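Exercise 7. Given the components listed, write out the predicted structure of the assembled complex. Treat all entries as one system.
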Amino acid sequence: MSITSVTFILFLLVTVILYYLIPGKYRWLVLLASSMFFYMMSGISNGIYILITALSTFGSAIFMQKITDSQKRYFKENKESLTREDKAIIKKKNTSKRKTLLILTLILNFGILCVFKYSHFALEQFNNAISLFGAQPIEDTMKFIIPLGISFYTFQSMGYLADVYWNKIPAEKNFLKLLLFVSFFPQITQGPISSFEQLGKELFEEHKFTYKNYSWGIQRMMWGFFKKMVIADTLSPWVYDVFENYSQYSGITTLIGAFMYSVLIYADFSGYMDIVCGFCEVLGIKLTENFDRPYFSKSIAEYWRRWHISLGVWFKSYIYYPIAVSGWNKKLGKFSQKKLGKTFGKTVPASVALVVVWLTTGLWHGASMAYVAWGGVNGLFIILSLWLEPVYDKCKSKLKIKESATWFRAFQTIRTFILVTFIKVLPEVGTLSEGFGLWKNIFTSRIIPDSWQTLLPFVDNIYDDKSIRTIGVVIFGTLLIFITSMIQRKQPIRQFLGKFPLIVKIAVFVALFFLIVYFGIPASGNAGGFMYAQF
Amino acid sequence: MRNFKRAIAVTLACILCTGIVFTLIAEVYFSNSYYYYQDSETRKNYGGEIDFLICGSSHGLRAFSPEILDKELDCFSYNISGALMTMQGRYTLLKKEIERNPVKTVVVEVSYNALSRNRVKEGAEGDLYILARLDNMAERLGFFFSAMKLSEYDRVLYDTVNRGVQCIEWMTDGRKQVDTTVTKGYNKPQGIYDCTVSAETYEQKFHYTKFSETADEYNISYLNKIINICKEKNVRLIFVVTPISSSYEAEHSNTDIVMATVREIAKNADAEFYDFNLIKGKDQMFPADTAYFDISHLSASGAETFNREFARVITAAENGENTDDLFYSSYVEAQQYYNCIK
Amino acid sequence: MEELLEILEEINPDIDYETATALIDDKMLDSFSIVSLVTEISDAFDIEISPKYLIPENFNSVQAMMKMIETIQDEE
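Answer.
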C-alpha cells in the first residue's frame, strides 16, 4: 500500500475511528490488528519472517528474564549462606547462559536479514575474489523478495533484546504487545527506530482524544504530503536523469543535480516521517524524531546527530558504546597511549568503534561497495575531525576566530552542506566509479549550457507552462522548507500558525491541498515509492 | 467531548472550503466546451431530432462522420463514440440519448479488443471523458461513484483540477470553445500514417502474435444492457467492425476466433453484423498508405470512403438485398487478398 | 568526588562541573568524551560500566555520575 494512495488514507481513517471507539485499555489491539492487516497487504508469504523475529525475540527475552529473576530470588533467600565468591560464580554462569541466548537470537535474526539483503553482494565479492585465481564466477540465480521493513524491525527487536540482556528493562510478558512493538505499521517501512522503553510507553498507555493532537497531527501530515509529493516526487525523475546522463551534461547542470538530490532525499524522508508522526499524533502517540533541521549542521559529526537520528541513536547505543567501552578496546587504548602518545592514543578506542559503526552504517544503507565506501568516507571525516580538534582549536585562537560569530557559523553551515551533498551523492549514482565520475564531471565537464533547456535538460520541454510552474513550485517548496526551518529554531511551526485565526489555517490547508493535488498527484504517479522503502 | 466536537466542526469547515474551491475550478471545466469531447450542450440542443446513433470507442470516433451519413442516408445522426470509451460509458451515453430522441438505428462499433479490454488494467481515462459529457453535477457524481475504483479517486481529482486550471487560463486568454454542432461527435484526425510494410516484414510478422480471446465479464454485461435497451426501444441494431490496417491485422493468428464471439452475441441479439476488414476489395477501398491515421484508426480520407461504403451496405440490407457476397467469410480467406506491401 | 573531577577536567577543562546539570542535554560532553570518561572512570574506580548505564541521566552532572558509580559498586 503506497503511503500516498487513497486506499492507505482510507485505511488510516478506519484505524483512527476504531481506535477511539474502543475503550482505552484495549486500543493497542486495534493498532495490532491494523499492523497485521498492513503487513498482510505486502504479501502473506513474507509475514512468516516478522513472526519468526517476534517469536524468537519474545522467547529469548522471557528466558533471560527468568534467569535474572530466579537469581535475584535465590540470592535474597540465601543472603546469609552465600559468600561473595559463590555469588560471583553463579552470576558468571547465568551471564554466560543469557549471553548464549542473546548471541543465538542475534545470529538467527541478523542472519535472516543478511541473507535477504546481502546475498547478492556477498556472492559478488566472492566471485571477485575467486576470479583473481582464474576460477569461473558462480551464477547468481537467487530471487528474493525482501520482507517489508526487515532492516527496521530487525534492528528495533534486537535493540529490545539487548536492553533486556543488560537488564535495562524487564522482558515483556505479553507476546501480542511485543508483536505490536515489532510490527507497528507507521514505522515499519522507514522507521523511526524506537526503543521499547520509549515506544512501549506510547503504545500501551491510554491516550485521550484532544483537539490539539488531532489538529497538529493533521497539519503535520499535510506538510509531509506536500514535501513528499510536490517536492520529492517531482525532483525524483529529474535527479535520476542527471545521475544516468551526467556525462552528457555540463558541470553546472550536474552540480544542480547533486543539490537537487540533497533537497529530494530530505523532502522524501522527512516528508514520510511527518506523515507517519502526524498520524501517530492524532492517536496521541509520540514517535521519536528523525530529523532536526540537518542541513543547518556545522560539522559532519553534528549532521549525523540531526539526520536519521533514530538510526544514529541505535548505532550509538548498540554498536558504538559497547565496542568503545569493551574490555579489549580499553586494552588497545592503553597500548596506543603508550605507543602513540596520550592525546592521540586516547582517541583510538573511539576511532575503532567509529570505523565499525560507519562501515556497518554504510552496509545498512545499501548492499554494495559504493555504500561501504560512503560509510567509510563519513566515518573518515568524523574521525579526522576528532583527531584534528586540537589543531583546529590552535588555528582558531591564532586567527582570533570567535566560534559564535555569525559569519563563522554561516561558513561552517554552508561548508558542511556542500560536503554532505557531495558525500551523499556518491553511492546513489550507481557503482562507485560512476559516483566518482559524477564528481569529476562537475569540475571538468567541457560542455557549456547555452539555453534554459540545456541548463536544465532533465525537465521535458522547459518552455511549456506547466514545466515552468513545476520548477516554480519546487523552488517555492524548497524556500518554504528553509523558512519553516528558520521559524523552527524558536518554536514549532504549528505553534507559530496557532497564533493566527482559524480562517488563516483553513486557507493554508486548502492551499496545500490543491498544491498537492495539482503538482503532487501526477508526480507521485510517475516516481513510485519511497526511497528507503527497500529497507 | 468538547475536543471531539471542535475537531468535527473544524474538519467540516475545511472540507466545505475545499469543496467550494474545487467546485469553482471544476465548473469552469465542466460547464464549458474547451475540449473537443465536451458535447453535452450540443446533444441537449439536438434532443428530439436524432434518429441514428453511433456508439463506439476510438475506432468509432475516427470512422463515423454524421455529416456524410446524414447526406447518404437522409437521417439525423450523432456519433457518441469516444476515445478509450468503456462499455459502461457507451451504455450511459446511449441510454441518455435513446431516451430523449426518436432513435431508429443504433450502430455499435466493436473492434478486436472491445470484449477483452480490461477496465481495471486500462484505468480511468475513458471514464474521465464521460464525466465531462454528462449534463450536471448530479449525473457526474452518480457516474463517478458507479464507474471509478477507489484507487482512482486521486486521479479523477487531479484530472478535474488540472483541466479546470487549464480552462481558466484559456478563458482568460479568450480562447474559443469547440463547436461540435457540425461534426456531431466525429473527430477528424489530422495526418496520415503509411501502413504499408516491406514484404520481408510482412512475412516475418505474419501470425506472430494473438489478440486476447478472453471476453471480460464487465464488457459482456454492459454490452447486453446496450442490446436490451435497443430491443426495448425497437431500434435497428447494427454491429460494425471498422477497418484496421491489413499489415497490423495480419500479425494476429486468431482474429476469427475473437470475432466469432462478437458474431455470436450479434446473432443472439438479432442484430446485423458487418466486418469491414472482410469487405472484398478492402485494400483498394482503404489503401494502406493513405486510409489510416495509425495502425488501427482510419484517416480523414479513409473515413470518407468508409462512411459511403457503410451507407451503401446498410441501405442494401434494408432493401432486402443479400449483402453476404460483399464480404469474405473469414480473416484467413480475406488475408489472401491483402495488399499492403510497399 | 575529587578523582572524578580530575578526570573530567582533563577531558574538557572549559566546563564548570560543580554547577552543571545538563552536560549531555546541552551537548557540553559529546559521545567521544563519554567514551574517554567511561574508560577513565572504570580504571579509577575499578568497576565495569555496562552499556546500560550509558544514558544521559547518568552523565548530566557530577552528582549523577557519582550516584551511578556507587550503584555499580554496590552491585558488585
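Discussion: Chain A is about 75% helix and 0% strand. The interface with chain B takes residues 5-7, 10, 208-211, 214-215, 465, 502, 506-507, 509-510, 513-514, 517-518, 521-522, 525 of chain A (CB under 8 Å).
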